[in-house]
Amino acid sequence: MLRFSFLTLFPELLAPFAGEAIVGKARERGLIDVNLVNMRDYADNKHQKVDDSPYGGGAGMVIRVDVAERALRSLPAADEVVLLTPAGARFTQQVAEELASKSHLAFLCGRYEGFDARVEGLVTRELSVGDFVMMGGEAAAACILEAVARLVPGVLGDPESHQADSFSSGLLDYPEYTRPAVWQDQAVPDVLKGGNHAAVAAWRRAQALERTWRRRPDLLPHAGLTPQDTLTLQGLGATPEDLAEWGAPPAPVQRARKKRQGADPAP
User: Fold this and answer.
1) Where do the segments described as Disordered lie (predicted)?
2) Residue 86 catalytic?
3) pLDDT value at 243 more than 90
4) Which one is catalytic: 41, 165, 173, 242?
5) Do 202 and 108 fall into the same domain?
6) Is the pLDDT of residue 44 over 90?
């Protein structure tokens, strides 16, 4: 079981998210546990006041370090204590995979002007879900909960289903289709209906490469490109400079077919 502990001033924001859909079913099956900790319970004053005005002046209020420390101390030891902050490292699929290998993750969800800077000494890492500012860390925590929980063995029906997802392979995911076979003159590609699994796999890889090349070429240096991928990217229009930047290996040598030897056709 992987335990998630979220330290927040608004546990009611996370409670519905942690109780529905795949995350909720994973909790029911005992695959993950979600512990919502209200930091107001550790305010150590009758008004449950957790914040105070910043030293030096300025707008807003700051969450006290002693409150955060008491809330953290109430928990069993965590493998990672994560501060959700715009100053943190970018949360990626690779980070999600790393966190999914742990047994207990604790997350500090800020509000107002954030935490007293001394909280940084209580955490093992700082994470951000993007270059934007929200009103608190709960929405970011919900994103991380879902991204990490789905990687826990048994949470998804197919244990290999996440391996081809966007970012897991280093590429964006290939396009998916289902019924109807034709919709508003748009047909499902024939290769997906032919039953040739090797052809389907090759088509999907080529489509993932094309999507990534057109939409997120910044991912390609980390995609572990193969010689066949290089050939595909060349066909899409990638330049030698592009391929060198992405660390693409040389394309396979295309050998010319030999003509079959035999008797000349009869006149």
Assistant:
1) 237-267
2) yes
3) yes
4) 165
5) no
6) no
